[in-house]
């Protein structure tokens, strides 16, 4: 990366990849909704740098998606996913043209997309162990993912509750 520069490296990797899966979150959308160049939301410069990098990378992917669409190319290389505690609106506008998945419930569909395997055909249902919403937790990485999803959901709920409480207090105090 240091040799060719991060953005050049990302551009090359995006073009060379068979698939590009972007995991989206409310935090990314929120940065755009409350964007104010004079306000720094985080004291940690490394985190701010990463946030700017992810914005730039999403822009790059969005440009590639737009070019592929304009050329009439298949967009199946590009995908976006959110976890079950997120919303479809957490997916950046640049990625609205690509396939969307909600994880973990759409794991079989994502598997099908990545491997080009039809899960359903007339009279046939392909069952693949450890990729169902219930079965993926039977492997260590799936269990770790499930725990991370649950913890993120709890944090989102707490933040939402704090925001609602703060909003209520503001209305009462005024």
TrEMBL record:
Residue ranges that the Swiss-Prot or TrEMBL entry lists as coiled coil: none
Subcellular location: Membrane
Domain (SEFIR): residue spans on this chain: 1-112
Keywords: Glycoprotein, Membrane, Receptor, Signal, Transmembrane, Transmembrane helix
Annotated membrane topology: Single-pass type I membrane protein
Name listed for the protein in its UniProt record: SEFIR domain-containing protein
